[in-house]
Amino acid sequence: MNSKRILGIFTLITVLILPMSAIANGPPSFVELAKKCGPSVVFISTVNTVQQDNSMQNKFHAPGQKNPFEDFFKQFEDRFKGNNPKQRRKQGGLGTGFIISADGYIVTNNHVVASAEEIKVKLQNADREYPAKLIGLDKETDLALLKIDAGKKLPFLSFANSEKAKVGEWVLAIGNPFGLGHTVTKGIISAKGRIIGAGPFDNFIQTDASINPGNSGGPLIDMNGKVIGINTMILANGQGIGFAIPSNMAENVISQLKTNNKVSRGWLGVTIQDADANTAKALGLSSKTGALVSSVNPGDPADKGGMKVGDVILEVGGAKIDDTNDLLRTIAAILPGKKIDVQVWRKGQTKNLIITLGERNGKTTVSAEKFAPKAKEETIDQLGLVVRKVDREVEAKALGLEKTEGLLVIEVQQGTPADEAAIAVGDVILEANQHQVNTLPELRKIINTEGKSRGLVMLLIKRQGRNIFRTIELAPKK
């Protein structure tokens, strides 16, 4: 037998053996894991009352259109006002939860129980339902804590460290999809740190374990039988894409709900934005990192601690800050009243601040009103802008300014650097490369000096009462 034939036979044997090896080392068995964790997962049913409009007018026309028979039906409804066309009816809901202590504390989603008038909990393989007491809710992370009195010690699950979880690890989801009852699905951690616009503290674990309506509030379990996340939502029109709240975030929230019936979060009192590569370059940073401060609320903790507009927050308590989402989560996880060390980048060098955090509240951005155009407009050819001074108090107020300052953008020429940087009509330019500008000569000077040497200019603008930064690349002169 020649060497080529021997090599061919060996290759064939290898091809046949490898698939058998792959099968032998395939997905692990989830039997024991499901058996161990299943009894700690509960099913939640809720009842709430909703108003149903039974008026005759609303039965005979499309939403948003005027009913052509409105006057006809109204004469009958006015005559029988005692028969209120808006009737109240009961509406039910289903979800999942899991027990976290032997005395009956249960974690679920806020959206499962938030509007419920009655909450009932059913244990695995049990006919009886237990009335549940709502201990606390947290809308911003979509978490809720319940309590039942079962008259006995209950099996419970513990939280894992979600920071140590790795993409590709096996996970198990247990829930009540479509009200079918106790259902187990398996998958892997598909991604971590997903930001999907669900709330200010997005940091979801993505999984391909099947999650459907009714799974909300159920546990995502690692191979050690611990909760790595709380299943909370699915991607519409997507298959194999579900999202879970990381256990580390959930554990902190649940601990506060259990102790105080509410969640308290730290508050700096700043408006922030991410710094792109050009903005980082304009600020003298070696790479895009941190959170750029576009405004500081007067009298709030950041202001009292010496933070300035244009600072880039690099670290909080020694922990590196990658972007705005990272800063929001980090500050929110710290209790109000605590002093923190904050490292910022300010005009080419680092500076350390000591800030005592306030408590997060519901402040919102003030919207600007209409402003009246005025004469004496001037063009900045390098940027592709037409601007003029803001010199009337009434106009400044309408633009969301505290005083008459800056240059109002009247026109943005199409295809110019300003257009590409998303500068908009109605923006007010307050600073250029962190220098205040109130006149066109001041702005032109910065463009022709620092701007020319760096190849870009960073503008601080006021837009509808809110500060934002925009960095414009300067086209070289031909």
UniProtKB/TrEMBL annotation:
<dbReference type="Pfam" id="PF13365">
    <property type="entry name" value="Trypsin_2"/>
</dbReference>
<keyword id="KW-0346">Stress response</keyword>
<keyword id="KW-0677">Repeat</keyword>
<feature type="binding site">
    <location>
        <begin position="232"/>
        <end position="236"/>
    </location>
    <ligand>
        <name>substrate</name>
    </ligand>
</feature>
<feature type="active site" description="Charge relay system">
    <location>
        <position position="216"/>
    </location>
</feature>
<feature type="domain" description="PDZ">
    <location>
        <begin position="257"/>
        <end position="329"/>
    </location>
</feature>
<feature type="domain" description="PDZ">
    <location>
        <begin position="387"/>
        <end position="462"/>
    </location>
</feature>
<keyword id="KW-0645">Protease</keyword>
<keyword id="KW-0720">Serine protease</keyword>
<comment type="similarity">
    <text>Belongs to the peptidase S1C family.</text>
</comment>
<dbReference type="GO" id="GO:0004252">
    <property type="term" value="F:serine-type endopeptidase activity"/>
</dbReference>
<dbReference type="InterPro" id="IPR009003">
    <property type="entry name" value="Peptidase_S1_PA"/>
</dbReference>
<feature type="binding site">
    <location>
        <position position="111"/>
    </location>
    <ligand>
        <name>substrate</name>
    </ligand>
</feature>
<dbReference type="InterPro" id="IPR036034">
    <property type="entry name" value="PDZ_sf"/>
</dbReference>
<keyword id="KW-0732">Signal</keyword>
<feature type="binding site">
    <location>
        <begin position="214"/>
        <end position="216"/>
    </location>
    <ligand>
        <name>substrate</name>
    </ligand>
</feature>
<keyword id="KW-0574">Periplasm</keyword>
<dbReference type="InterPro" id="IPR001478">
    <property type="entry name" value="PDZ"/>
</dbReference>
<dbReference type="Pfam" id="PF13180">
    <property type="entry name" value="PDZ_2"/>
</dbReference>
<keyword id="KW-0378">Hydrolase</keyword>
<dbReference type="InterPro" id="IPR011782">
    <property type="entry name" value="Pept_S1C_Do"/>
</dbReference>
<protein>
    <recommendedName>
        <fullName>Probable periplasmic serine endoprotease DegP-like</fullName>
        <ecNumber>3.4.21.107</ecNumber>
    </recommendedName>
</protein>
<dbReference type="InterPro" id="IPR001940">
    <property type="entry name" value="Peptidase_S1C"/>
</dbReference>
<feature type="binding site">
    <location>
        <position position="142"/>
    </location>
    <ligand>
        <name>substrate</name>
    </ligand>
</feature>
<feature type="active site" description="Charge relay system">
    <location>
        <position position="111"/>
    </location>
</feature>
<dbReference type="GO" id="GO:0006508">
    <property type="term" value="P:proteolysis"/>
</dbReference>
<feature type="active site" description="Charge relay system">
    <location>
        <position position="142"/>
    </location>
</feature>
<dbReference type="GO" id="GO:0042597">
    <property type="term" value="C:periplasmic space"/>
</dbReference>
